[in-house]
Design a protein that fits this description.
Layout: E1 2-7, H1 11-24, E2 28-33, H2 36-45, E3 50-53, H3 62-72, E4 77-82, H4 87-95, E5 100-103, H5 110-119, E6 124-125, H6 132-151, H7 155-165, H8 170-177, H9 181-195, H10 203-210
Parallel strand pairs: 1-2, 1-3, 3-4, 4-5, 5-6
């Protein structure tokens, strides 16, 4: 028996994918829920070989659910099935070790091919996403280079950068670090220089928000 869980907040699409899987596989049992929180609750109670997740769901989205499954070390193979083609979504899913990534535009029988590939221990990228891996390679290289530069920052600069990413003003950062606003401005200037960020009033905050996930543990 193959046990599969589908999480998607669109009932018609959810039912359609369930029918495709039921028609294409022998001896399969499918549960389906409308959000990631419900998926987590079932995953805590039952063992599933595969879980199919939409990205945009209430309560807990697909990427958050994926991260939870991988952090828990579950053996469940995770397939992201989404309408979104954004690089950020693909990169986040791939970095979190998603097993399969499909676009809803091409789902149909492709979900069956994906399940077959995952059963063989492979990862699967759906049609229309072929260029994503090349872009993902560039993304990983960029993230690695940024991480190396972050290691060169002093502890005071790291604390300042983290507070900048939390959208604190220089005066707020000064209060929290018990230093003068002038010292904060000096730290910000040095951070920009070390990280290769163009000078400007808002350049550091824009950069910090874009790369916030890299230094959340600073």
């Amino acid at each position: 028996m193959i046990n599969i869980l589908i999480a998607d907040d669109h009932p018609i699409f959810r039912k359609g994918i369930a029918e495709v899987i039921s028609d294409g596989l022998i001896d399969v049992e499918i549960d389906h829920v409308s959000n990631g929180l419900e998926a987590v609750q079932l995953l805590l109670k039952n063992e599933y070989q595969f879980v199919v997740l939409d990205v945009d769901m209430p309560e807990k989205d697909g990427l958050e659910t994926l991260a939870w499954i991988k952090e828990k070390g579950l053996s469940t193979k995770v397939i992201i099935l989404t309408m979104f083609k954004e690089d950020e979504i693909f990169n986040t899913a791939w970095m979190n070790k998603v097993d399969g990534f499909l676009l809803k535009d091409h789902s149909g029988n492709e979900v069956l091919k994906c399940i077959e590939e995952l059963t063989l221990g492979k990862r699967y990228i759906g049609a229309g996403l072929e260029s994503k891996m090349q872009e993902h390679g560039k993304y990983v290289k960029e993230q690695r280079e940024i991480a190396e530069k972050l290691d060169e920052l002093t502890q005071a600069e790291k604390k300042t950068l983290k507070l900048v990413a939390e959208n604190n003003s220089s005066s707020q950062i000064a209060d929290k670090l018990f230093i003068t606003p002038k010292s904060v401005e000096n730290y910000r200037s040095r951070i920009c220089k070390k990280m290769g960020i163009a000078p400007g009033n808002n350049s550091l905050i824009r950069w910090a928000l874009e790369h916030k996930s890299l230094f959340k543990d600073l």
